[in-house]
Amino acid sequence: MPGPTEVPSEGEKQSGSLHVVVDDRASVRVVTVVGELDHDSAHVLRDALARPLHDGVRRIVVDLAELRFCDSTGLNILLRARLDADASGRTLEVSRPRPVVARLFEVTGTDTVLRVRLDPDAKSGPPATEAATDSPAPDRE
Asked: How far is it, in rounded angstroms, from Cα 13 to Cα 22?
């Protein structure tokens, strides 16, 4: 399987505040987001989530452990990515958001739509089950 690849450097230069790395691991694609996700930098994450998936990928994990800020544009990208994943028979999980981002999810109700995992093993944990896919309630193990 291919290792981690950075999303186009020209996107990083344009945003200046967001860095995204995509890592395909067998049946899981991990998208690591670092920095500040806002209107000006959102295209970097949007492009990363729009990258084609090979047939073996069943689960997408967006690792937010190093995301310091997220605005409504970022929320919309994550919600759209979840819909796209569902439509293609895949699951999308958001893992390890910092307290400020987790609070944003809570206040906006996004945590009831996205699968949010707070545990440190969320990137490498077992794939989501079909039952969990049907229920968008947050997974707070």
From this structure: 17
Distance CA 3, CA 94 (A): 20
Long-range contact set of residues 104-110: C-beta below 8 Å, sequence gap at least 24: 104/70, 104/75, 105/75, 108/72, 108/75, 110/75, 110/78, 110/79
Per-residue CA distances from 111 to 23, 70, 101, 116, 118 (Å): 24, 14, 10, 6, 11
Q: Which pLDDT tens digit goes with each residue over 43-68?
A: 999 999 999 888 889 999 999 999 99
- 90-101 mean pLDDT: 96
* Per-residue pLDDT tens over the stretch 24-44: 888 999 999 999 999 999 999
Give the integer Cα–Cα distance in Å for 51 and 45.
10
Q: Which amino acid is at 117?
A: R
Residue with tokens 């996700």: 37
